[in-house]
Each structure stands twice: as structure tokens, then as C-alpha cells.
Amino acid sequence: MTDAESLNDAQVQEDIGLIQRIAERDSQAYRAFYQKYSGLIFASVANVLNDHHDTEDVMQEVLVQLWNKAHLYEPKKGKPLTWLTTMARNRAIDRIRAKQRRSRLNDDFERENKSVQPEFEESGHELMVSKERDSILMRAVSKLNPDQREAIELAYFSGLTQAEVAERLREPLGTVKARIRRGVNRLETLVKAKLD
Question: pLDDT of 77-89, one tens digit each?
Fold first, then answer.
């Protein structure tokens, strides 16, 4: 066994000990674990959400979950850090799905109310402005390179998460995130040019 492997094993054992103490409600162990890994947990969540406010919220949820569920950790199933980052990633994905559900419910509510309440109906001018914006956006999307266009359409028009887009395109998640980010930046430039 090399020194690095020995050090890694010692660190894993130390982390297991911290988790076991957290399960026994040891606040010092919790603080030590937090100081050691909070940056990594934050980064894991931020990589999924790309939103600082949501990342902070999910980070808090994960830390509460760590305190409340430490007793469920089983060392034979993996390292404490893997357990925690998986928990963080799952919470972040849950947040994305919840936001998408709320958005769909809100859209459904608006559609329903527009059909039964005349005060919610768009005026002719509002319809014209809305169609013009849609037209500008669709022309801008058509000017993206094919990879960016496909990723943007799946993420924003089909409502897939970035992870689902990566799976559908059989591309690494990082590649898809970069494609979407560059595509959105390009769209902003194209749309601003048309609206100015």
C-alpha cells in the first residue's frame, strides 16, 4: 500500500467516524465535517443548478439531511463523501424537477383562466408583441450551431434537465452544460440586437 492509499484510507475512516458521531448528535463532529466538505457540497449542487440562490437553499437542505439521516449511512456501501455528494446531487435534481412542475402548473393555470375569465385575455396588441418576440427568438435559435440548438431546444422547449439532455444526446454533462451556456449567451446577443 502506498502512502497516498494509506492516507486516503485514514481519511475515509476519519470521515466514517465523523458520520457515526453526527448520528449520535455530536455537534462538534458535524461542524468538523461541515468545515471539511461544505465547499465541495456547494460545488456539487451548483454544478447541477447553475443558480446561486437555489444552490444555497439546497445546500441548507442537504446539511439538515446530513444531521437527520447520518444514522442511515452504511460504510460498506461507499465512502461518506460519495454518500453526501450523491445526496446533494439528488436534492439539486429534485429542486429542478419541482421548479419545472410549478412552471407547468402555472402555465396550465394561466391557460385555464384565460379561457374562462375575459380579463385575463390578451389584447390584440399584447398578442402581436408576444408573437413578434416568439418570432425573434425562433429566428435567433435557428442561427445557433446545430449542437447548441439541439441542446437548447431539449432543455428549454422540451423541459428536460441538463442531465436528461446529456443522457439523450449521449454526451458528458459538462459538455452539455457548456453548450447550453454558450447557446444562451449567443441568444441574448442575437435577441438584444433585434430588440435595440
Answer: 889 888 888 888 8
